[in-house]
Amino acid sequence: MTTVRVTVTLKPSLLDSAGRTVAGSLVKLGFDEVKDVRIGKVIRLQLETYDEARVRAMCDKLLANPVIEDYTIEVEP
Amino acid sequence: MTTVRVTVTLKPSLLDSAGRTVAGSLVKLGFDEVKDVRIGKVIRLQLETYDEARVRAMCDKLLANPVIEDYTIEVEP
Lengths: 77, 77
Known about the structure:
Chain A is α+β, with helices and mostly antiparallel strands. Chain A contains 2 helices and 3 strands.
């Protein structure tokens, strides 16, 4: 069994309004070292067999929206 | 400037219904090597100064719900 971590984030050129809101709240709570926050999804897949091309296909078909999101695939040790 | 990645996931004992749904959809799309899916959040913080105790405080106060979620903190190179 292989554990694969897919991280899906908004493309850097797009405004992340949730992240912007969290950054503002953190500063209001006194964490004024916070300069920027971006929020994404992490999807942990348990796979019987690992094939990177197939995981890429899962991302393109279901896990991410390639128009507005980037994704990275990492195999967990 | 330090980039810190906070990963927030549901505690393993809790049912992740979104993950369950995604797993079912992937299997229906033909990815039958998928055995389990868990979905979490990844929060990328840009910090002027990094202090792990302060990031932990951000997690406990705002970024995670310690009753139902676990979090990990990683400093990005």
